């Protein structure tokens, strides 16, 4: 069989074409271009410097320095991808320059490519296991990745390689600080400064350590020394800006941060801290410009987005939520954005989302330890930020659960109290939860405990007033509300609770005054409108009562008290069908309102629906034997019903007598019912006397449908009163 012969061409080794060697003259011109570019770098003229390095690379493709310097220029311009490419070429040309591996790793880290950065450094360390700078560089990558423990390990190795240099101690101190081991950091910083009292990095770390301890004056001393030792060390300027900010010397803070930005225009922390200072000054537009710059420089740094969200939260909540969401995406173990996003969801009343975020916080950190470190913003904090305690997180989640109707609120408050038995907000929150569950006794216990710990807690006073409302302890309600309003004169809730107590006591003008004050503070209080409507009803000003009920129902379409009071007012106007419809609506929203059942029974009484009226009045009095509407109106049914089968003078007397006793013989409705019972029994002299007393109560005398004067005439004529039929 014939085979085709393949021609063989010997090209010689090596097969891969090497870069051409520049002529001596071209090489010299390349060196000159590199020197010009280097000078431009010192002047921060990065774009012009890159042009010189471009020329050098064209003249001499083997000039490693041209690629190394151009990579650094790209970094200064925020282009880490091009920097990595140039560092790759520099490493290929000068593989024994360990500094190139470290610089390339920093560029990879800026891109968030931590694994590639670590791979390159691992290779370099295998080639030069005694090179301390490589361990320092790898520690920086571990720190950026959030693994401070490995960063400390590498810095310890660097110290061993470098024979315990000041630089190594200073770097390791920074890693210890990231771990929250300030004692170890302090020891390393003392060693660093003993070896080199002018170590700018160590002095800067010392200053930051003082800032974390809120010792701003001492911090400034160390930071001044750091800047003096190395005026180009931007980290010291950034930290000193933070120190001035803690002293609220905003202009001095901005001056240092401006200088840092000029010297290092790709340092995200410089822009970030300046943005925070500008926000503190109220310069929100400029602040957001700084945060936008920080995001462009560090698009994979979760804390950059977190910091921008903190400033956006008050004015741009939706954009703040987006920033917190991005921070969480970049670092799923970062608790602070979850906590803060939950706050914003709660402000938007998106309770389920708030609860989910707090669930995730507790899932990630079940024991809720080290919340201060996970909540700390990037860079030097220029504001003192509140870091939530574990108990506060459970209270926050519990409040969201209660507000959103999600089960588990009381359990969260109990867990908060297990963690901190003296946590007053947890006690008040659990007390409020017990109130919502209809357990006033348990609520009272929590409010009492809260007031023992904090007698000036207006919220606990108001909460206890609410519990006393449920228990009918009206004098106690007034006392607690008075105390709460002394502590917080703008507490609308206390005003509303006190107005209810005045309403029950028949103090109509005081009820109206408290409701007026509450509505001035919070015009959206449906309960204030509802309580005021009850007072207008008590004064028989039916139109004003109905107007308040309508306002309450616009604010809260399910306000049972507003339906009940409107039903009562419509009874006053003789609108029986509409009154019954309102009572039905009230009971649909709150079936436990026995007084509304009594009102409906009274309305049915005047419509001539004797059987249904009797059923409602019996049901109301079974639920509350002392109901002030049920007793006189059932008595009236038994004394004055047009159908004789419902009349029973003895039972009418018993109900009316009980009603008079319950109202201290001062209420016209009860006295008139007793008069009708006497008339039914044929005791007309007693009936006349009692009806005259009833007419002394202006509230009763003005109710036309009760025919108060016609009754008196009937009794005087020795005739019993009869309810009109259908």
UniProtKB/TrEMBL annotation:
PROSITE patterns: TPR (PS50005)
Domain of life: Bacteria
Alphabetic keyword roster: Repeat, Signal, TPR repeat
TPR repeats: 30-63, 64-97, 98-131, 166-199, 234-267, 268-301, 424-457, 594-627
Keyword Glycoprotein: no
Signal sequence annotation: 1-18
Pfam families tied to this protein: TPR_16 (PF13432), TPR_9 (PF13371)
Gene3D superfamilies: Tetratricopeptide repeat domain
Entries under PANTHER family matching the protein: TETRATRICOPEPTIDE REPEAT PROTEIN 6, UDP-N-ACETYLGLUCOSAMINE--PEPTIDE N-ACETYLGLUCOSAMINYLTRANSFERASE SPINDLY-RELATED
The name this protein goes by in its record: Uncharacterized protein
């Amino acid at each position: 069989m014939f085979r085709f012969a393949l021609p063989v061409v010997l090209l010689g080794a090596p097969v891969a074409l090497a870069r051409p060697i520049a002529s001596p003259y071209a090489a010299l011109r390349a060196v000159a271009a590199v020197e010009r570019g280097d000078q431009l770098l010192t002047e921060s003229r990065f774009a012009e410097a890159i042009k010189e390095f471009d020329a050098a690379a064209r003249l001499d493709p083997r000039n490693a320095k041209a690629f190394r310097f151009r990579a650094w220029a790209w970094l200064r311009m925020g282009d880490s991808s091009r920097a990595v490419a140039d560092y790759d070429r520099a490493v290929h040309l000068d593989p024994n320059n360990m500094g190139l591996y470290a610089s390339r790793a920093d560029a990879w880290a800026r891109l968030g490519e931590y694994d590639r950065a670590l791979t390159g450094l691992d290779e370099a360390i295998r080639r030069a296991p005694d090179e301390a700078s490589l361990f320092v560089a790898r520690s920086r990558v571990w720190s950026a990745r959030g693994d401070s423990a490995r960063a400390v390990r590498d810095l310890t190795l660097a110290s061993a390689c470098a024979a315990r240099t000041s630089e190594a101690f200073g770097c390791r101190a920074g890693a210890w600080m990231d771990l929250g081991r300030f004692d170890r950091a302090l020891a390393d910083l003392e060693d660093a400064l003993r070896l080199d009292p002018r170590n700018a990095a160590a002095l800067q770390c010392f200053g930051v350590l003082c800032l974390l301890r809120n010792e701003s004056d001492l911090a400034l001393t160390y930071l001044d020394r750091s800047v003096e030792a190395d005026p180009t060390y931007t980290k010291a300027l950034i930290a000193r800006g933070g120190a001035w900010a803690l002293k609220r010397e905003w202009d001095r803070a901005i001056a240092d941060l401006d200088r840092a930005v000029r010297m290092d225009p790709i340092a995200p922390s410089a822009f970030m801290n300046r943005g925070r200072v500008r926000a503190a000054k109220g310069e929100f537009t400029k602040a957001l410009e700084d945060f936008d710059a920080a995001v462009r420089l560090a698009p994979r740094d979760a804390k950059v987005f977190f910091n921008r969200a903190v400033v956006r939260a008050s004015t741009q909540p939706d954009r703040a939520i987006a920033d917190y969401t991005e921070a969480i995406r970049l670092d799923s173990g970062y608790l602070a954005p979850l906590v803060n996003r939950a706050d914003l969801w709660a402000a938007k009343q998106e309770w389920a989302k708030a609860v989910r975020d707090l669930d995730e916080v507790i899932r990630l950190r079940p024991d809720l330890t080290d919340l201060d470190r996970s909540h700390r913003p990037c860079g030097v904090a220029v504001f003192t930020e509140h870091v939530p305690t574990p108990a506060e997180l459970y209270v926050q989640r519990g409040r969201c659960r209660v507000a959103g109707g999600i089960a588990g609120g009381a359990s969260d408050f109990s867990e908060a109290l297990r963690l901190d038995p003296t946590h007053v907000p947890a006690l008040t929150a659990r007390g409020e939860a017990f109130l919502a569950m209809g357990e006033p006794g348990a609520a009272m216990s929590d409010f009492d405990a809260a007031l023992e710990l904090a007698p000036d807690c207006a919220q606990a006073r108001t909460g206890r007033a609410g519990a006393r409302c449920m228990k009918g302890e009206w004098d106690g309600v007034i006392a607690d509300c008075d105390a709460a309003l002394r502590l917080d004169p703008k507490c609308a809730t206390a005003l509303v609770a006190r107005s209810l107590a005045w309403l029950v006591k028949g103090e109509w003008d005081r009820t109206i005054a408290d409701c007026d004050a509450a509505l001035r503070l919070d015009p959206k209080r449906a309960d204030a409108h509802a309580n005021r409507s009850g007072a207008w009803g008590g004064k028989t000003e039916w139109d004003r009562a109905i107007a308040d009920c309508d306002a309450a129902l616009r604010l809260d379409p399910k306000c049972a008290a507003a339906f009940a009071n409107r039903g009562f007012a419509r009874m006053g106007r003789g609108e029986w069908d509409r009154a019954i419809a309102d009572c039905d609506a009230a009971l649909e929203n709150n079936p436990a309102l026995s007084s509304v059942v009594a009102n409906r029974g009274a309305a049915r009484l005047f419509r001539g629906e004797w059987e249904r009226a009797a059923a409602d009045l019996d049901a109301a009095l079974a639920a509350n034997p002392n109901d002030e509407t049920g007793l006189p109106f059932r008595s009236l049914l038994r004394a004055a019903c047009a159908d004789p089968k419902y009349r029973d003078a003895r039972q009418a007397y018993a109900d009316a007598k009980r009603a008079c006793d319950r109202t201290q013989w001062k209420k016209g409705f009860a006295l008139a019912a007793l008069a009708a019972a006497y008339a039914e029994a044929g005791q007309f002299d007693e009936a006349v006397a009692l009806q005259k007393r009833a007419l002394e109560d202006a509230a009763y005398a003005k109710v036309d449908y009760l025919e108060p004067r016609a009754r008196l005439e009937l009794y005087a004529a020795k005739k019993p009163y009869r309810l009109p039929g259908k």
